[in-house]
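So, read this over?
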Amino acid sequence: MMPKPGKHTSPLPTPRKIRRSCSKELYRTIKRLDTYIPEERIRQGEDLYYRKVIGNLLWIAENISNRRLLSDWWDEAVSAELAELWQVDRETLSKAFRAAFGG
């Protein structure tokens, strides 16, 4: 018998929901960058971000309501590789992500 989820707990998101969320967040970031990024690099960036989120899913789920902390994690874990892949300045990418994500 499994315990029922509590009032303030939610189950982990499904892989589909995670992939869609990553895609939306990066789409909003790209719009704020105001820079052209080829479609293939966007897909590679989404895949990179998705893998990082899946690898750290439990911590992200615990801190889901703290966008500033999640943005800090994104800066440390994702932004360097993504900036290199997309050939954009890391600092500009980080600011665009924070503006898009709300952290």
About this structure: DSSP finds six helices and no strands in the chain. Residues 54 and 101 are 18 Å apart (CA to CA).
